[in-house]
From TrEMBL:
Biased composition (Basic and acidic residues): 7-17
InterPro entries to which the protein is assigned, alphabetical: ATP-dep_Glu-Cys_Ligase-2 (IPR051680), CP_ATPgrasp_2 (IPR025841), DUF403 (IPR007296)
The name this protein goes by in its record: Circularly permuted type 2 ATP-grasp protein
Start and end residues of each stretch annotated as Disordered: 1-22
Top-rank taxon, per record: Bacteria
Domain DUF403 positions: 522-823
All copies of domain Circularly permuted ATP-grasp type, residue ranges: 94-474
A Pfam family assignment: Alpha-E
Stretches that traverse the bilayer: none
């Protein structure tokens, strides 16, 4: 009997036996699933009892749906140093832990967070630990994360740490231990949230029946902790990112969206009047709290790292005068030091009066003579790590285990002789394992996989609160360390199983919040991105319509078929525009090759695919503002325009692909108009589309609606403006120059005419904020009014090629004027604060 048939007759007991029958923990490593005697541990029997009721086909179908959801919603990550996005690799099994065990773990995590807070307060204050001999001065002063300008600066809000995280694993004795402390700018919180959202919808029945502890109360408390200490009752909280090419940008955007924070980059911020201000399209708005996701020394190029282009000049002054609450305080990364780990047990007894409940592997700092002697004597039994925090992206790759030490023993001995203070020796801490799926000929089975678990504690107004879950990373290979996300690493949701039903809370605030009808002020950078998202989408549509026109898909009898002769004047004009726009490499390609290159060419900067990829790049920075439906349509559009470049496609295939792509762009436009709130963000998306459409229509009119235009030219002009049906219903005698010009240029009732676009631009600009109250229109509004007046007062015969070229230039000037007023485009741009000074 085939494996499929055999599985079809299996019941839950047989299925579970096959899944777990060959599972064996690796020698010497603790395993979450199975004890040494072969019995299942902890909460795993509860999970498998419910999971076994699902057939393997059902499990795989559910997870295919989950992977589709991940793709459609754009959950992704970047490997450090790699600009490509990789789909988020979520595993189909959660890590499950009983609530009683989690409670004990949480107590140790809170104790450790308090210890880190106390150490930071001491090293940036009285330095009592150094004076008492509990911590060598060189461990503090020699750490690159100890920021001297922050010495003596009391943290606004009274706390150095708002968020503490720890990477943990099981020791051979079964107890949890801390592999690394994370206090600089802990990542993973957003990915843990995304994991929960995906897996809870993948297994909603299991999620409910197993009484999984919920995450929203933790995030609500965390947000309250971010606001604590701010001077205003309704503070503006910003999340500072290094930008869309950050390896964790997706999770930062997810957190900003979920918590209602303003996602900002350094260019969005400026110091003025001793306070941190956000550049918005409405002018400068004060930031009261800042959750930073960049390293502390990059925050201020004046007082900290002068090479930084990520921070804000003068930012440290806002911390000195107490006008800004920050999570975490700059310099908090100092307690991540490997050298500090050697002294933590003694410091804990001195500061807290108790031993650590969550210990680290025993560590010896080689800058201490006794520590160096021990490491030298036991070099073959220890791992060697940097004493200071590893460089970004290095992670545990900086560790040299016993095997590596043996291979490079001479170099290691020399390094310990020349610069011993750069290293610590540590007891080996191999990662424990948990089950993962493996497919075999007989079906699925469990195999042990090494994992690392990051857990989080947030400082709230009521004290420390531990998130009931975590960020788990699993290696698909036993010899790969999953401490950082990279290829071959999967993530897992972490389920804390309560013994009784749990409430299903939402991220609701307590009390009665002030009623609002807009999301808040729009940062100038976000406005810039939204504007270009609209322009790139419209450019892609224009290219697709040109290809469709050349392939003969014009859809109305008033248009003559031009596909029979590629040398026909109308066909040559289409090719000339595609060539001018960079959509094709040459204007004399065969029709099918031309269409394929213009639609999906990877080397063509002006292809429809290139424009959609640019739109997606902009959309990636707008995850807090675009709906999930819009992202899914955009992902489908990218797929449509990602044909195999090595294959030649027939004209009919390209025609169908172009028509489908056009439908997807129409869907994007519809989602923009139906799903986006009519706040500033929507105005800029539509502004970009309207201005770009007007510019493109002027270009089309110069080519196809000139004084010598043929019937084929005019038919293509109508097709490019999607106006054939309206024209046919209005004029029964066929195409003529003046009626076509009037319809595509001057008709205020045609949503594709230039006049319609300019009137829409005027309305958008009128609805956007002005920086002065003197009643004088700003430059962009004056220019738009002049263009609108010319179209509203003109007649079809006035718009020859010369007039259209001039108006196209005026529209380009209008786009630049909008950018100059609202966007932070370099040091000489008219940013809002500069304009305010000129008003």
């Amino acid at each position: 009997m085939s494996p499929a048939g055999r599985q079809g007759e299996e019941g839950p007991p047989e299925r579970l036996a096959r899944w777990t029958g060959g599972y064996r923990p690796q020698p010497g490593l603790p395993d979450e699933f199975m004890a040494a005697d072969g019995a299942m541990r902890g909460a795993w029997p509860r999970l498998l009892e419910r999971l076994g009721d699902l057939g393997e086909a059902e499990i795989m179908a559910r997870f295919v749906s989950a992977e589709r959801h991940i793709r459609d919603t754009g959950i992704s990550f970047r490997i450090y140093g790699d600009q490509r996005e990789h789909a988020w690799p979520l595993g189909s099994l959660p890590l499950v832990i009983e609530a009683d065990e989690w409670r004990t773990l949480s107590e140790g995590l809170v104790q450790r967070a308090e210890l880190m807070e106390a150490i930071l307060a001491d090293v940036y204050g009285p330095a009592g630990l150094v004076s008492a001999g509990l911590l060598p001065a060189s461990v503090v002063a020699g750490s690159p994360e100890f920021l001297r300008p922050l010495h003596g600066v009391s943290p606004p809000g009274g706390r150095y740490l708002k968020l503490y995280a720890a990477d943990i694993g099981r020791a051979p004795d079964g107890r949890w231990r801390v592999l690394a402390d994370r206090t600089q700018a802990p990542s993973g919180l957003g990915y843990a949230l995304e994991n929960r959202m995906v897996l809870s919808r993948t297994y909603p029945d299991l999620y409910q029946d197993l009484h999984v502890e919920r995450l929203p109360p933790f995030f609500q408390s965390f947000r309250e902790g971010l606001a604590a200490g701010a001077e205003r009752a309704d503070p503006r909280i910003c999340l500072l990112t290094s930008g869309p090419y950050s390896s964790t940008y997706v999770e930062q955007a997810a957190l900003a969206r979920y918590l209602g924070l303003m996602l900002v980059e350094g260019d969005d911020l400026v110091m003025q009047d001793g306070c941190l201000q956000v550049r918005t399209v409405s002018g400068l708005k004060r930031a009261d709290a800042l959750w930073r996701r960049i390293d502390g020394d990059y925050l201020d190029p004046i007082e900290l790292n002068p090479a930084s282009r990520l921070g804000v000049p003068g930012l440290i002054e806002a911390l000195r005068n107490g006008s800004l609450v920050m999570a975490n305080m700059p310099g908090s990364g100092m307690v991540e030091s490997g050298a500090l780990a050697a002294y933590l047990p003694g410091i804990a007894r001195a500061l807290l009066g108790e031993d650590l409940r969550l210990e680290s592997p025993r560590t010896w700092w080689c800058g201490d003579p006794d520590g160096l002697a021990y490491v030298r004597d036991h070099l073959d039994d220890l791992t060697l790590r940097p004493a200071a925090t590893p460089q970004r992206g290095a992670g545990r790759d900086a560790i040299l285990g016993p095997h590596a030490l043996a291979a490079d023993r001479a170099q290691v001995v020399a390094a310990l002789r020349d610069r011993p203070f750069d290293y610590v020796g540590q007891e080996p801490a191999p990662l424990s394992t948990m089950p993962g799926w493996e497919r075999t000929e007989s079906g699925l089975r469990f195999v042990p996989r090494p994992f690392a678990l990051r857990v989080f504690a947030a400082r709230t107004p009521q004290g420390w609160r531990v998130m009931p879950g975590g960020f788990c990373r699993i290696s698909e290979r036993p010899d790969v360390d999953p401490i950082e996300m990279r290829l071959g690493i999967k993530s897992a949701d972490v389920w804390i199983l309560s013994g009784s039903p749990v409430d299903a809370p939402t991220l609701a605030v307590q009390g009665a919040p002030r009623v609002r009808r807009i999301a808040g002020h729009l940062p100038s950078r976000a406005a810039d991105t939204l504007f270009w998202y609209g322009r790139y989408t419209e450019r892609a549509e224009a290219v697709i319509r040109l290809v469709l026109a050349h392939l003969g898909s014009v859809g109305d009898a008033v248009v003559t078929d031009i596909t029979g002769d590629v040398r026909a004047p109308t066909a040559l004009r289409i090719r000339a525009i595609l060539d001018e726009w960079g959509a094709v490499s040459a204007p004399d390609l065969p029709t099918a090759a031309m269409a394929q290159e213009a639609l999906v060419g990877r080397e063509s900067r002006g292809s429809a695919r290139a424009h959609i990829l640019s739109a997606r790049t902009n959309a990636a920075t707008l995850r807090t503002r675009l709906s999930g439906e819009a992202w899914r349509v955009l992902a489908d559009l990218v797929d449509l325009l990602s044909l195999d470049q090595a294959r030649d496609f027939a004209e009919s295939q390209l025609l169908r692909r172009a028509e489908r792509a056009l439908s997807h762009i129409a869907a994007l436009s519809g989602l923009t108009h139906e799903n986006m709130s009519r706040a500033a963000g929507w105005h800029f998306v539509d502004l970009g589309r309207r201005i770009e459409r007007a510019i493109n229509t002027c270009s089309f009119a110069m080519a196809f609606a000139g004084d010598e235009a043929s019937a084929d030219d005019l038919g293509v002009m109508l097709a490019l403006c999607d106006s054939q049906v309206t024209y046919g219903a209005r004029y029964m005698q066929g195409v003529a120059l003046d009626p076509v010009r009037d319809m595509v240029l001057l008709d205020p009732y045609n949503p594709r005419s230039v006049a319609f676009q300019v009137e829409a631009v005027l309305r958008h600009l009128a609805d956007l904020p002005a920086l002065s109250a003197d009643g004088i229109p700003e430059p962009q509004r004056r220019l738009a009014s002049r263009i609108a007046a010319e179209f509203s007062a003109g007649e079809a015969g006035d718009f020859d090629g010369v007039a259209m070229a001039r108006l196209e230039s005026e529209l380009e000037r209008l786009a630049d004027a909008v950018a100059g007023r609202y966007f932070p485009n370099g040091p000489h741009a008219l940013r809002p604060e500069k304009l305010a000074g000129l008003a």
